[in-house]
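One such shown below:
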Amino acid sequence: MEKSINREPLLSTAAVSKWFGVSTRTLCLWAECREIPAIKVGRQWRFRESELAQWLHSPQAAKVKYLFQPQVRAAGS
């Protein structure tokens, strides 16, 4: 059985909270409640930028979208 490995860098809660304009606490609550795609690494949450971008355009994000206005990120930043 072969597993595909995603080598995309993981974003920290601080980076994503700054991008979304929400507190790190709010972001961790969303991750804990599975409102947002996240990966638990030890005691910390990490995020893949591609999964977050895809999530932002999905119906699943509608529950929390009204709470924030994400800042537009320039490509490669």
